[in-house]
Design brief:
By secondary structure, this protein is α+β, with helices and mostly antiparallel strands. It is built from 10 helices and 4 strands. Strand 2 and strand 3 (245-254) form a beta hairpin. Helix 1 (11-36) packs antiparallel against helix 5 and helix 2 (45-56) runs antiparallel to helix 3. The longest helix has 26 residues, at 11-36.
């Protein structure tokens, strides 16, 4: 079998990727400086710690959010350089520096809103879109996740659990510094941003992976291809009770095609067993999200 040659990233794709990383960092800076900071609302992770320290150390020269964000993230970037990869660390540093620089320019701009609930909702949405764009294009604005990736290899926790534990302490600290209500708004902002990040990373065209077990697998597969325009993959299976070999159909469809797929399968075999699962991401030249 011929060995594939690893291709370097093209200049066009590199520029495209860094454009969206900087755009995402800019949106995050807008959220922080024009929505969150004026209302004493913070995010989690290193961004949240930087905001709290900026508030507490505001009288010290040259100590500000931009400087703190870069300095606090550097140890995580250094630690993750060998474990996670050079490309990821460079992309993350570019996003962090862009966030720090843009935030500095926005420091004297009038805030968009002073109503806390509006700042929470729209600040969280803007922050989520910004951070999501950075992550989707190969970077990160928060070293906490990098630390989580490194430590969870030795600890019995997932990255998500580790980040959650860290943020509990950060929001608890915020309650002492800014007050209980501001800390609660901060938790709401974090939740909104978290959900928005998922949407940006996964895209709006949510896909579903479907597994179908049917004695009429050939007819079902043909019907899916002819009526839905989706190719299928046949997997070998064995019944746990009967010990009989079975053909299992695997197909990926968009969220809006699920009902049509179920109708197609039911028309061919009303007794077919169907399992529908959400997918994180679907890639491939043969998969198109057009609705038939």
């Amino acid at each position: 079998m011929a060995q594939r040659i690893h291709k370097k990233e093209s200049i066009f794709h590199l520029i495209y990727r860094f454009f969206f990383i900087i755009l995402g960092a800019g949106l995050a800076a807008i959220s922080i400086e024009l929505f969150l900071v004026p209302n004493n609302i913070i995010d989690g992770g290193v961004i949240g710690v930087s905001l709290i320290l900026d508030y507490l150390l505001s009288g010290i020269p040259f100590v500000n959010f931009a400087t703190l964000l870069v300095v606090l993230n550097l140890p995580f970037m250094y630690s993750g350089y060998k474990q996670i990869g050079k490309t990821f660390v460079i992309s993350s540093l570019a996003g962090i520096v862009a966030l720090a620089v843009i935030e500095s320019y926005l420091h004297n701009v009038e805030p968009f809103v002073t109503e806390e609930i509006l700042a929470t909702v729209f600040g969280g949405l803007t922050l989520g879109v910004g951070v999501g764009l950075v992550i989707r294009h190969g970077g990160s604005l928060d070293g906490t996740e990098i630390l989580g990736i490194l430590l969870t290899k030795k600890l019995p926790f997932s990255v998500g659990e580790f980040v959650m534990f860290i943020n509990i302490f950060i929001f608890g600290w915020a309650a002492f510094v800014f007050g209980i209500e501001e800390a609660m708004y901060s938790v709401m902002t974090y939740y909104i941003a978290f959900k928005t990040i998922d949407t940006v990373i996964q895209g709006m065209d949510e896909t579903k992976a479907v597994i179908i077990v049917s004695d009429y697998y050939t007819e079902v597969s043909d019907a899916i291809l002819q009526r839905l325009g989706r190719g299928t993959t046949m997997l070998k299976g064995r019944g746990g009770y009967t010990d009989n070999e079975k053909e299992v159909i695997y197909v990926v469809v968009t969220r809006l095609e699920v009902m049509k797929l179920k109708g197609i399968v039911s028309d061919v075999d009303a007794d077919a067993f169907i399992t529908i699962m959400s997918t994180q991401e679907t890639k491939g030249a043969r998969f198109k999200s057009a609705i038939h």
